[in-house]
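Revision sheet: C-alpha cells.
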Amino acid sequence: MGEAKQKKADAVPVEKARELYNLAFRTSRTTISVIDAMTQRGAIKGEELSAIGQLRDQCVQVSQLAETFQSEFGTD
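Predicted:
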C-alpha cells in the first residue's frame, strides 16, 4: 500500500470502523438466513445455485471475520 493510502487508512475514525463492522456482520448473517430459507423452499433455480452458494460462502467468511474481530477487540 502506498504511503498516502496508508496514512488515510490509519485515519479512519473508530466510530466509522465500528459502524462498518456492525453493518457487515448484520448484513452477512441476514443474507445467510435468507439464502437458507430460499433453498429450503425451492426458490432458487439450478443454474443459480453456484452464484448463490458463492454469495453464501462470502457471507460466512465476513461473519467469521467479524466474530473473530469481536472476540479479539471486544467490539459490540
